[in-house]
Specification:
Elements: E1 2-7, H1 13-17, H2 20-45, E2 61-66, E3 89-93, H3 94-100, H4 108-117, H5 126-130, H6 139-146
Parallel strand pairs: 1-2, 2-3
Length: 162
């Protein structure tokens, strides 16, 4: 079972530069998302009527999706104000989701379960774990771009480095 919490946020300049204040700023931005994941997971366990159709007997993990990647958010580093998640939780950028949903050599669920079970690799950015896996083009994006009047209606036949 995959819970997805989407937040419209980006790392601060301090976080991008790897400055000391960057960790605290990152934790402060992500803390609300972690709390929401835990709240939702608890409501599923408590059989809240809003989640009645969701099974409670399956492995559960979460993705916190942000506009841009937060490279050290998953690292096993000291965090200032980041709550400890009740279920395996990974922070990913939108571009990582695009790669995840176009996998062709495995399923997204298999890859995420395998990654969550690995104590070391679960601390890596999802992009690092996706390296070496085959991806296809995203048909939703292709159709969207083709709908623009300025589109040449010619799309590359191979993934563009994703």
């Amino acid at each position: 079972m995959l819970l997805v919490e989407v937040k419209s946020m980006m790392p601060t300049e301090n976080a991008r530069l790897g400055l000391e204040d960057g960790v605290a700023e990152t934790d402060s931005k992500l803390a609300r998302a972690y709390r929401q994941v835990d709240t939702t997971s608890a409501q599923i366990d408590e059989r809240n009527p809003a989640f009645a159709g969701i099974p409670t007997d399956r492995p559960r993990q979460a993705l916190i999706v942000t506009l841009e990647p937060f490279p050290v958010a998953n690292a096993n580093l000291p965090h200032v104000d980041l709550p400890t998640a009740d279920i395996p939780t990974t922070v990913v950028g939108a571009q990582e989701i695009e790669r995840l949903v176009t996998l062709t050599d495995t399923t997204p669920s298999s890859l995420l379960l395998e990654r969550a079970a690995d104590p070391q690799r679960s601390t890596w950015a999802l992009n690092e774990y996706l390296n070496g896996h085959e991806c296809d083009r995203n048909p939703v994006l292709d159709q969207g771009w083709a709908a623009y009047p300025s589109s040449t209606a010619r799309l590359p036949s191979a993934p563009d480095g994703m």
